[in-house]
């Protein structure tokens, strides 16, 4: 392996100083994806700047708006005393991510910044309408997660920008959410994943948020399906329409894990199951 | 560029000089001579390289060596007591026939230790979930799960 430097800054200011000196340096958080890419020589690196020792990026504060520091590990999310009550859909997805060894190191921010269409954290965060805070030396902005992903491995982060926090509003008491994932074995990457958040009044859907993973170049909100269901009463006929529209709204590919035809079919099935489970 | 780091390995402080691109497994098996930890896939899939860092099981093949600074690390070598007697988990693996070629065993045992340290009374499902990141290509998993269950009982009896 070609050598590279590894820096461990203690503050964000130090990070930006390093980034200015070595512009080609890559950020590393948990590194569970990055280290594999390095090993397979898919990346040519000059330096890595580790974000693990920066206090501003850690911690979870649950409140009216919940803040999850980007460096929070997947295990920390699972073990957090109040996240599982407040955002069970996020914790369910966290439990499905990789193995114990991976969850103990992988971070929620890294899972998002890796910009994989199958990112297990992205799918529930999309239906929870999470925002991400992005900071650079001079700027700080908050954007909806939906606008963060630009394509496979591509986000809207500027070269010196860092995703520092994930921000979540409280969900309504009548909101129910679910995460479903289809993989070959349990610790596998998702062949297809689906998250659904539903608020109902009587039989009427007043708010629907639906997101799917591994079926497009980015983790995807199905906005057209959401719009179709807003204010509607779910019938058998409408569900068939929803399933068709969901399958038509995605652009899956065939790869080592599944064919695009299979993915289209599974999306349709998982969407129906998600509604069935949420509506009990 | 080499950097000197120190950390606690199986209870003793060690100092080692590491490169920026070194992984934890490289320094464990290399300069520190602790070859009980194995490298299988090198991609975080097989778990042969599992060690415990500050109480949590991790893949040492995905762990930058420089992040070990100041940490408490336990490898398979740290499980035996001073009289070289096998620990309860190791003995349970022997007794249950949970070892065939043995390559996955150090990682399996370390994952089992991390589980039992935090959850002394795991269900079958919790054992299987804790070992999901450890692959065995010889014995299958029945004897391994049995060994962890037996170790849990022994540890409870002795504590």
Itemize the secondary structure elements and their pairings:
The complex is a heterodimer of chains A (280) and B (159).
Chain A: E1 5-7, H1 12-21, E2 26-28, H2 34-39, E3 47-50, E4 60-61, E5 65-69, H3 74-79, H4 83-86, H5 88-95, H6 100-103, H7 108-113, H8 122-127, E6 131-135, E7 140-144, E8 149-151, E9 154-155, E10 162-169, E11 175-182, E12 192-201, E13 204-213, E14 220-221, H9 223-229, H10 236-248, H11 260-279
Parallel strand pairs in A: 1-3, 2-3
Antiparallel strand pairs in A: 4-5, 5-10, 6-7, 6-10, 8-9, 11-12, 12-13, 13-14
Helix pairs in contact in A: 9-10, 10-11
Chain B: E1 2-9, E2 12-19, H1 24-29, E3 50-53, E4 56-59, E5 72-74, H2 88-95, H3 105-118, H4 124-130, H5 142-158
Parallel strand pairs in B: 1-5
Antiparallel strand pairs in B: 1-2, 3-4, 3-5
Task: Describe, in short, the structure shown.
The complex is a heterodimer of chains A (280) and B (159). By secondary structure, chain A is an alpha+beta fold. Chain A is built from eleven helices and 14 strands.
Radius of gyration of chain A: 19 Å
> How many domain regions of chain A?
3
What spatial form of chain B do the alpha-carbon principal axes imply? globular
- Uncertain residue ranges of chain A: none
Mean pLDDT of chain A: 95
